[in-house]
Amino acid sequence: QVQLVESGGGLVQPGGSLTLSCTASGFPFRDYAMSWSRQAPGKGREQVADITSSGVRTNYADSVKGRFTISRDNAKNTVYLQMNNLKPEDTATYYCYAPVGRGQGTQVTVSL
Fold this sequence. Notes:
The chain is about 0% helix and about 50% strand. By secondary structure, it is mostly beta strands. A hairpin with a 6-residue loop joins strand 4 and strand 5 (about 45-50). Strands 2, 4, 5, 6, 9, 10 and 11 form a seven-stranded mixed β-sheet that branches. Strands 1-3-8-7 form a four-stranded antiparallel β-sheet, with no helix packed on it.
């Protein structure tokens, strides 16, 4: 069955960095575009980044442009989200999305 497992979340101070990973199984990962979204308490889901199946093209939400980088390793069935210069407003549960499913989420908290 389709599985998407995120990891790498945690507590970080403002200005810090985290790298999220999402390892996929149960579908042909290399054939699918992937994306990362986030949801903060009381707010709607926001897609922050997406990447084509080959990894050649990426897109970012304005709120994270220049600070976040999405990448993928098709040999490892893994997509990454490098997050730099984190801000308190980046606090949310981050989810990895494929057209065939979604991960369970990983919590990112940015606070002193």
